[in-house]
Amino acid sequence: FLKPEFWRNPKKAIKRAYKSTDDYILHNVVGPRGGSTAVTAIVIDGKKIVVANVGDSRAILCRERDVVKQVTVEHEADKERDLVESRGGFVYQEPGNVPRVDGQLAMTRAFGDGRLKEHISVTPNVEIVEVHDDTKFLILASDGLWKVMSNEEVWDQIKERGDAEEAAKKLIDKALARGSTDDISCVIVSFLQSID
Q1: At what angle do helices 164-177 and 151-161 cross, to 10 degrees?
Q2: Residues in domain PPM-type phosphatase (predicted)?
């Protein structure tokens, strides 16, 4: 996928890759039902990170002095009502529930979900962020983690452990212990060997 187009225009290349992935999923995996949010990251020469997401999977970047930066945008139905309506859909919220596209899907951007594809998008939000000397970790996780833990709580857990693999396992365990009922996945990319 890292073709010459990626080096010329990484944002455009990532968007094309998400579209190709969505086409594959729709035709070979889930058909009209089922789908997924996603977050991806490409680290370039340890100096830049290209982060993309659809839905509510999230990435945060952690730096020294407890600097935590969310580098993704969550594509919730109430926030992107204009997108849905411009494609002929509607956003509806039942009492006690979250707003949903056509009364069904809480996210406006996702892979799959063919039955709603006319009203949702697979176009990701793409950010290019610099890796500085004080960059410690990049955390990529699904909404099952973020529904029960804040960005800062996740960073606090990683600081306590110091080891990226161990911290990812502990974060999943903590999300389960807090009663998360959604899918939970977590990947931690370490830029330094240890935490001061």
Answers
A1: 130
A2: 1-191
Phi-psi region of 97 (alpha: psi -120 to 50; beta: other; left: phi over 0): beta
The percent of residues in the chain predicted with pLDDT above 70, rounded, is 94
List strand residue ranges (DSSP E) for 125-193, in order: 125-130, 135-141, 186-190
According to CATH, the superfamily of the domain at 4-190 is: PPM-type phosphatase domain (3.60.40.10)
Specify burial of residue 175 (Cβ count, 10 A radius: 0-12, 13-18, 19+).
buried
* Mean pLDDT, all residues of the chain: 91
pLDDT at residue 192 tops 80: no
Task: State how far the Cα of 196 lies from the Cα of 189, in Å rounded to an integer.
Answer: 17
Over the stretch 33-65, which tens digit does the pLDDT of each residue have? 789 999 999 999 889 999 999 999 999 999 988
